[in-house]
Amino acid sequence: MTETLGGTGEFGLIEAVTKGLPRGEDVLVGPGDDAAVVAVPDGRMVITTDLLIEGRHFRQDWSSAYDVGRKAAAQNLADIVAMGARPTSLVTGFGAPADLPTSWAVELNQGIADEAELLGVSIVGGDVVQSDKVVVSVTAFGSLDGRAPVLRSGARPGDEVAFVGRLGWAEAGVAVLNRGFRSPRTVVDAHRRPQPPYAEGPRAAISGASSMCDVSDGLIADLRHIADASAVVIDIRSQALAIPEPLQAVAAATGVEALTFVLGGGDDHALVATFEPADVPDGWTVIGSVAEGNENLPPGTVTVDGAAYTGAPGHAHFG
Amino acid sequence: MTETLGGTGEFGLIEAVTKGLPRGEDVLVGPGDDAAVVAVPDGRMVITTDLLIEGRHFRQDWSSAYDVGRKAAAQNLADIVAMGARPTSLVTGFGAPADLPTSWAVELNQGIADEAELLGVSIVGGDVVQSDKVVVSVTAFGSLDGRAPVLRSGARPGDEVAFVGRLGWAEAGVAVLNRGFRSPRTVVDAHRRPQPPYAEGPRAAISGASSMCDVSDGLIADLRHIADASAVVIDIRSQALAIPEPLQAVAAATGVEALTFVLGGGDDHALVATFEPADVPDGWTVIGSVAEGNENLPPGTVTVDGAAYTGAPGHAHFG
């Protein structure tokens, strides 16, 4: 018989998922007490938190528990690097029904731990509760290592807009899965397990990025956040956005314009940033520019090839 | 017509709940970017996280949104003070269905903000997602202000066991609500809105507490965590536990022995700690003592009046 959480119990599960966790030397008190204690040598802690809800952010028939764990960690760690910071540690919350196989919970946690270990990040604590549907919360922490944080509000007229990472792959994967298919495998895997370009966040900060965010809602939507916060106008040149082959294949098969995935799709956790032209790091693709607002294009506007974008606006909850 | 989250939208709700939030001077970057940045002058950050699930931790017919917010913040802030630390900031996650009245979400957040403000704690970030049931996550942070953290593992034979705060009130409140009643009001309110003795955590640390935790699972269950982590035996003297009048009334009305509420009831977030006899702070009640384990009473055992406790064991999820 499959062992379930009802049999394993809260404390049994906590023991199963915390034993053998690697612990960085900055972890002064790890899991098992009322709270964790983490060293913050820089004197400033970068903090981000996300909730993932079964049926909204993942489906058990589309993603394995391990993949959900990788994704839950990845989307938080991407927020940390999008500040120009280095991820250091994280805590988790986990809610699940009593009839969930214990192995599912253990594999989820293994996914979180493996994604964290890519960056030397320690899991320092968590909470386990009973819930009708699976709920995962991750709160991640990072260090700026003496640098200023890169905010959304620093874009200036004359800056170039550049990105690194994937755009639209995860969204194309969802389009495929929604139609009951499992291929192209590359886009399905991109939905299941995003691969944020972690190292590029601190690298962009060192190169002098004036603003940055990770693409979680969609390129246009997230650039609007930068344009809003910076009180500027951003124009994207669609010619600069090469459409990768797998996205062309999905577009042909589904009848969706491929550019819609690239401009509107979130969840790949690419990084998009603004730089003075000389500061754009190698490996980043320049896709547009920053200008002042005017009567016709008020600050906060994002245009594509100089015109208002009328495609998918990007993801928003309750929308 | 009542405005719902479906109409307000994710970004509308974020704006509604973040505007006007007080921001402490240690908040370097507040809500609205990929991540927050908080000053940590002490160089060590105390971190705790909890998930609250509708139907498990609260019921909308028993608690107002405002009360759920107060409680969500309180249970995390209690974990911070139980380390001997001073709470400084917190982040929240909020999941809810699209048909939830927007006012419910705003009042929940007001409850979190008001509980936080009691201690000068800043809300520095959060996440808002769609979900079938209401889910609230809180991750709270604290500063040790140069002190060592008070762990569960420091109890030593010869120490006295003392507590401060309420024991069993919230559990008696649940017993009343479960029977469809709304009084005695004091115990129902204790369930809805715990009042942890926040100031006593740092005070106990300064007084030399050798171990400490907050009572969230129940006095016996939480003392077992201390006895386990410290490899000692703890004995509680039931005579030392005065039964407050409202608990006697609930006991008489429900036929439950009053001591069961006191020994097994969680969620009041009293603090229980061990001290050398001379170090017990004024206002704390000595209720027992710490001894070495032996053949009959192995380390990790908690007894009441020298005998194994056979009443309610305290709360555990999936139990």
Automatic annotation (TrEMBL), chains A, B:
<feature type="binding site">
    <location>
        <position position="79"/>
    </location>
    <ligand>
        <name>Mg(2+) 2</name>
    </ligand>
</feature>
<keyword id="KW-0547">Nucleotide-binding</keyword>
<dbReference type="Pfam" id="PF00586">
    <property type="entry name" value="AIRS"/>
</dbReference>
<feature type="binding site">
    <location>
        <position position="79"/>
    </location>
    <ligand>
        <name>Mg(2+) 4</name>
    </ligand>
</feature>
<feature type="binding site">
    <location>
        <position position="127"/>
    </location>
    <ligand>
        <name>Mg(2+) 1</name>
    </ligand>
</feature>
<dbReference type="GO" id="GO:0005524">
    <property type="term" value="F:ATP binding"/>
</dbReference>
<keyword id="KW-0460">Magnesium</keyword>
<dbReference type="InterPro" id="IPR036676">
    <property type="entry name" value="PurM-like_C_sf"/>
</dbReference>
<feature type="domain" description="PurM-like N-terminal">
    <location>
        <begin position="32"/>
        <end position="143"/>
    </location>
</feature>
<dbReference type="InterPro" id="IPR016188">
    <property type="entry name" value="PurM-like_N"/>
</dbReference>
<feature type="binding site">
    <location>
        <position position="216"/>
    </location>
    <ligand>
        <name>ATP</name>
    </ligand>
</feature>
<feature type="binding site">
    <location>
        <position position="34"/>
    </location>
    <ligand>
        <name>Mg(2+) 4</name>
    </ligand>
</feature>
<dbReference type="GO" id="GO:0009228">
    <property type="term" value="P:thiamine biosynthetic process"/>
</dbReference>
<feature type="binding site">
    <location>
        <position position="49"/>
    </location>
    <ligand>
        <name>Mg(2+) 1</name>
    </ligand>
</feature>
<keyword id="KW-0479">Metal-binding</keyword>
<feature type="binding site">
    <location>
        <position position="48"/>
    </location>
    <ligand>
        <name>Mg(2+) 4</name>
    </ligand>
</feature>
<dbReference type="GO" id="GO:0009229">
    <property type="term" value="P:thiamine diphosphate biosynthetic process"/>
</dbReference>
<feature type="binding site">
    <location>
        <position position="214"/>
    </location>
    <ligand>
        <name>Mg(2+) 3</name>
    </ligand>
</feature>
<protein>
    <recommendedName>
        <fullName>Thiamine-monophosphate kinase</fullName>
        <ecNumber>2.7.4.16</ecNumber>
    </recommendedName>
</protein>
<keyword id="KW-0784">Thiamine biosynthesis</keyword>
<keyword id="KW-0418">Kinase</keyword>
<comment type="pathway">
    <text>Cofactor biosynthesis; thiamine diphosphate biosynthesis; thiamine diphosphate from thiamine phosphate: step 1/1.</text>
</comment>
<dbReference type="GO" id="GO:0009030">
    <property type="term" value="F:thiamine-phosphate kinase activity"/>
</dbReference>
<feature type="binding site">
    <location>
        <position position="50"/>
    </location>
    <ligand>
        <name>Mg(2+) 2</name>
    </ligand>
</feature>
<dbReference type="GO" id="GO:0000287">
    <property type="term" value="F:magnesium ion binding"/>
</dbReference>
<feature type="binding site">
    <location>
        <begin position="126"/>
        <end position="127"/>
    </location>
    <ligand>
        <name>ATP</name>
    </ligand>
</feature>
<dbReference type="InterPro" id="IPR036921">
    <property type="entry name" value="PurM-like_N_sf"/>
</dbReference>
<feature type="binding site">
    <location>
        <position position="50"/>
    </location>
    <ligand>
        <name>Mg(2+) 1</name>
    </ligand>
</feature>
<feature type="binding site">
    <location>
        <position position="79"/>
    </location>
    <ligand>
        <name>Mg(2+) 3</name>
    </ligand>
</feature>
<feature type="binding site">
    <location>
        <position position="152"/>
    </location>
    <ligand>
        <name>ATP</name>
    </ligand>
</feature>
<feature type="binding site">
    <location>
        <position position="217"/>
    </location>
    <ligand>
        <name>Mg(2+) 5</name>
    </ligand>
</feature>
<comment type="function">
    <text>Catalyzes the ATP-dependent phosphorylation of thiamine-monophosphate (TMP) to form thiamine-pyrophosphate (TPP), the active form of vitamin B1.</text>
</comment>
<keyword id="KW-0067">ATP-binding</keyword>
<feature type="binding site">
    <location>
        <position position="267"/>
    </location>
    <ligand>
        <name>substrate</name>
    </ligand>
</feature>
<dbReference type="InterPro" id="IPR006283">
    <property type="entry name" value="ThiL-like"/>
</dbReference>
<keyword id="KW-0808">Transferase</keyword>
<comment type="similarity">
    <text>Belongs to the thiamine-monophosphate kinase family.</text>
</comment>
<feature type="binding site">
    <location>
        <position position="34"/>
    </location>
    <ligand>
        <name>Mg(2+) 3</name>
    </ligand>
</feature>
<feature type="binding site">
    <location>
        <position position="57"/>
    </location>
    <ligand>
        <name>substrate</name>
    </ligand>
</feature>
